[in-house]
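Consider the following assembly input.
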Amino acid sequence: MTWILPEGASLSFEGLAEPVLIVRGLGSGSQGQVMEVQVAGERLALKWYFPACIARDPNLERRLGEAIRATAPSDSFLWPIALLRPTPGSQAQLRTRSGGFGYLMELRPREFAGAVEHVAGRLELSLRSVLLACLHLADAFHALHSKGLCYKDISLGNLFLEPGSGQILICDNDNVDVDGRDLGSVLGTPGFMAPEILMGRARPGAASDLHALAVLIFRLLTRHDPFRGQLELAIRCLDEPARRRLYGEDPVFIFDPLDHRNRPDPEHHAAALLTWPIYPAELQALFVQSFGPGLRDPARRALTGQWQRALARCLDQRQLCPGCGQENFRDGELVAPAAACWHCGSPLPPPLVLVVPQGEVVAAAGTTLHRHHFDPLHPPQGDAPLAELVAHPSDPAILGLRNRSGSVWRAVLNQGEALEISPGRSVNVAALAQVLTPEGPITPQRRCPPSPM
Amino acid sequence: MPSFPNVRLASRPLHFIYLCDCSGSMAAQGKMQALNQAIRQSLPGMARVARENPEARVLVRAVRFADRAHWHIATPTPVEELQWQDLQAGGVTAMGEALDLLAEQLASPPMEERALPPVLVLISDGQPTDDFETSLGRLMRQPWAQKAVRLAIALGHDADLEVLQQFIGPDPSSGQAPGTVPAGGVPAGEVPGASGEMPRHAVAGAGRSDRSPRRPLQASNATALAQYIQWASTAVVGAASMPASRVGDGQGGTSGAGNIPLPDLPPTLLDPVDDIGPVVW
């Protein structure tokens, strides 16, 4: 590989007091190359653009400068930190005559894997992690759009996730623009592009981001494409014109309740048929909305806030099957016995729920409580848990509630005894009448099905 | 431990086929060795791209041609399992026969009912010694040959660029269509999305290079050959298997030009004098 910035070189850039050591090349793409560099003792990544990329995107430098000044909307973005232009002195060391520019960003930690690894079935992760990743994604776009910005080109290729925690990183933030201003040339990635963009009726912005976001969430949750059903099977050679028809001219959601033309094929689209029924109707409804009326009318696409609520609620409804341990998500009311486990077919018993000021959460190992469970004004988020349901280390059948907040809780046991739960300690949920936390009370309730008359 | 259902994205095959000139002249100046090296060295990168594109099952084959044409790798082989056996030079240039072998394999069957556009890479340093035009006509009657991304690499200065351009098809950016490529005889709807148009070269914005993947790529040394092979086996495979980010053409929308938009040539090759310097070779 030929690197524009030679490995091992120490290069000076305008406005930087110290030279930047080019440590090694990390990768090369269609736009440019990414190098690992050392700046003032700190390891960072430096993306350097190919001259052809700069030539066809005249506003790139301006957008980057504005993004840097705007600062990252949330921790989920690998946001540009500084724009670098070579000094005349280091220009000669660059393997390009036109110089060009690049930007610094944080290095992507090793534990983050490409989202494509998940879609390809090569990552071991739980449904909870995938839902958390989707929640973080919705949260990230909520923060981005709230700043008046849009991303324009989200796809599986620029999303990374940490399989254990569901934390995400969004890379390639160089198309970010002020929504509606259209100082860019990128249109998006086929398969993720909204139909009006693919067909040239509109330019990318926050409204088309919402389509791409829905596609991305669908692909993460199902490992399948929302528009690949029977209509895809009718295509022999899946090339550009075929994709245009599938995603632009006549897109039909594979689970559209009214239009049945594009239903998944049991043999070729098995992933969609297996995974889709796992999710609660409330979450499914957002896809039906975004990929139904929302396909033609961008104003009717599910909003980031709706995704946040539905995904957070889905996580609250998670119940582990007593037969096989698999994760199930209960629909609607938590009283009635749910349908059978999607994995082993065992009937799911009425769950133990935790009543919190802002709703009810099914008690299942791994589930976490957050500020939004207590504070009606706090948006649903998947990080900074205040409490976590944990299995007892020696007897997994015993479920505990761990204090993950910074304050001491007061627990009232079933017999009326009161005790203190310090941060990091867990209390047996079966013994618990109520926990009083500074954020509000948590009350376990065993839900029994209505007794037959 | 709970885990995500054991399902994965359905994939389609992507056939990548090398057509390698093994005529006697390939023995000169180490060209044969350079080609063997270039292909062997390109395989890890190709495997990486295949891995990043779960929608595609990348399957590699190769035809060698000299006095006769033979399948060098007859079985479509997943790229990660491929071991490149060295080609040997000697004989004349039965390029037409190579196209005949290809045409047989691009018929349906043996081609799958559904696939991604095949990628065909023709590498030659000379002139066909058999009836190239008749064979090309036969090949281009196959719908999968029409849908294929067809690339050609000219090794050295004696390659017949006219013939290689005929294999690729007319270059829309040249203004004058060299040669005549037989039009497809496919009834409309036979292969959905059929389009006789050729991919437009994506680098139009750069607007200063006369190099284009729609013309024979001229490799005058081993480094250039290796970079072209690497480009074909990574960037082009990526473009044919999973769509990449699109840039507008100023008129709004992605115009439907061609069935696969070809990626930029590597910058080092686009303009070795003006852009990335000639430092490396």
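Chain B touches chain A through 62 residues (CB under 8 Å). Ask yourself how this observation constrains the way the partners meet.
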